[in-house]
């Protein structure tokens, strides 16, 4: 097939927009749960989204540090125990953060879901931000930030945010020295303020999502706060 590079594609007006179901399929306590059934592999993914982005920070780097430290130890599992059990079961717990939201995700085979939910729900509800693991994280994070601060693209992004949002929580506050103020107490306080499941929502996607949501509810309900 010959590509006609001098002839743009024909533009057509949108005739109809498909309706999307944005109503929750149910609730765990007061937390809405959305189910997205699909895929061919026997895998399920659970995303828990909190209103805990970087714009809620009182100290620079605290929101990012919290979301990255969640699986470094809980009241019931050490960092090593979490890593070893997840690796043994072929499961993965990941996290992400934006200006407005943070997200904690579990990806696992359906047959191992019940064995991973205890750890996952601990990560969501009772992390302890241990001193040793925090020290390791801070050293790595400062090293990575120092490298990024030498990159033109990264510096331009910071400068752009500074010019666009000079007095706004949406500006980027990034400097290696900010990590010196990050302590377990700082992270715990931020977690207590912003990681209430009362303000979160949950997305369960993959195979057999309805049963996965029921299993999550059974494991999560005894640990939920502020309901």
Structural commentary:
There is one protein chain. With 227 residues, the protein is α+β, with helices and mostly antiparallel strands. It is built from seven helices and six strands; from the N terminus they run βββααββααααβα. It has helices spanning 62-69, 79-89, 113-125, 131-148, 152-164, 184-194, 209-220; strands at residues 26-28, 31-37, 43-50, 92-97, 102-109, 201-206. It has a six-stranded mixed β-sheet with strand order 1-2-6-3-5-4. Strand 4 (92-97) and strand 5 form a beta hairpin. Helix 1 crosses helix 6 (184-194). The chain is globular and about 60 Å long.
So what's the overall shape? globular
Structural class: alpha+beta
Note the gap between the termini.
60 Å
Helix percent reads 25-40%
Mean pLDDT: 91
Largest sheet: 6 strands, mixed
Order of helices and strands: EEEHHEEHHHHEH
- Runs in which pLDDT lies below 50 for 5 or more consecutive residues are none
Number of DSSP strands? Answer: 6
Instruction: Give the count of helical stretches.
Output: 7
**Measured on Cα atoms, how large is the radius of gyration?**
21 Å
For the largest sheet, list the strands in their spatial order. 1-2-6-3-5-4
Task: Determine the strand fraction and express it as a percent band.
Answer: 15-25%
């Amino acid at each position: 097939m010959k590509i006609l590079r001098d002839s743009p594609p024909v533009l057509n007006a949108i005739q109809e927009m498909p309706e999307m179901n944005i109503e929750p399929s149910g609730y765990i306590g007061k937390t809405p749960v959305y189910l997205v059934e699909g895929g061919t592999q026997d895998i399920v993914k659970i995303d828990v989204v909190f209103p805990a982005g970087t714009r809620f920070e009182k100290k620079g780097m605290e929101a990012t540090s919290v979301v990255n430290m969640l699986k470094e130890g809980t009241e019931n599992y050490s960092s090593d125990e979490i890593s070893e059990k997840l690796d043994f079961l072929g499961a993965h717990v990941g996290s992400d953060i934006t200006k407005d939201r943070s997200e904690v995700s579990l990806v696992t085979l359906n047959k191992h879901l019940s064995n991973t939910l205890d750890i996952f729900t601990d990560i969501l509800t009772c992390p302890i931000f241990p001193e040793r693991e925090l020290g390791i994280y801070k050293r790595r994070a400062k090293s990575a930030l120092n490298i990024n601060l030498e990159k033109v693209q990264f510096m331009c992004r910071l400068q752009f945010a500074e010019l666009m949002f000079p007095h706004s929580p949406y500006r980027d506050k990034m400097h290696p020295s900010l990590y010196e103020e990050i302590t377990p107490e700082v992270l715990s306080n931020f977690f207590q303020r912003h990681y209430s499941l009362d303000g979160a929502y949950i997305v369960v996607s993959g195979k057999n999502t309805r049963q996965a949501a029921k299993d999550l509810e059974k494991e999560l309900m005894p640990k939920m706060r502020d309901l």
